Amino acid sequence: MSAGSVALVVSGKIAIPSWDLYELSIPCTVFGKPQPDLSEQWYDFRLCGTAYGDGGEGEGAFGMTVRTPYGLDDLVGAGTVIVTSVPDACVEEGRPLPEGLADALRRAYDAGARMVSLCTGAFALAEAGLLDGRRATAHWMHTAQLAARYPKVEVDDSVLYVDDGDVLTSAGVSAGLDLCLHLVRRDLGAHVANQLARRMVVPAHRPGGQAQFIDLSVPATDDEGLGPVLDWARARLDRPLTVDDLARRAAMSPRTLYRRLQAATGTTPLQWLLNQRLARAQSLLEATAAPIDKVAELSGLGTANNLRHHFLKQVGVSPGDYRRAFGQAG
Question: Domain of life here (predicted)?
């Protein structure tokens, strides 16, 4: 018996970078290997190449070749269609998707398929119009590009994956595994998904979301007049700082500081300060064994309760969970 058919899109005639190769292997491992002792039902799994007219053959990374008898036309009729990362040039330079991909995705969806993207595969679903009016995610390094290019999509960069019923999207790299296990949980139940996760030596459900991996520090500003005052503030995060303090240091009015900082960094002075304090707290949690209350003091967040409040809100996990995941001290 089958739990349903899963069609995975593989790019033909395009070299597959190592990270994309990892993401490609995730659905192959989860859906492509039957687990008869866990469930009599499993998935009818197939790879569908974008270069269908050439037999679905493409040159892969490390001298490997992707070869499949299935092409984009075979997406239609599948119960679930999965798109992993699209070529970097499609994301970074806005180049077109592989020929026929967006149209094939629309046809598959119209035929009743559940549509799934891993990492930048969300760009393919968005190009096909399947994310319009929906909440979606992608790798946090590319969510701003996704939101700018497809303004009808409600992009959320804080989560590991988004389940919007018949359209699901995940963040990058290992978050694809979180989503694939979630699909198994939906289809075959929690017990099967949990046991499969144990066999893969991964947690069945990770705490928090993608926010814990995002670099909260704001990129250097192009506004040369702000550089010195921002450096001055970073060196004094353990002290009380206000917008007025920054404005006096910059020799400008608070309103002018607000306008120029928002134009240069995309955020307000108070949010910039909070991001810097949280970034300092992250560094301290990663590199030191300082108690939580000391981390709060050194980062300028005051008390341990205040640190926990902002950490949970902005990062998505508690300071203790973050240290256990990323800490190197001790």
Answer: Bacteria
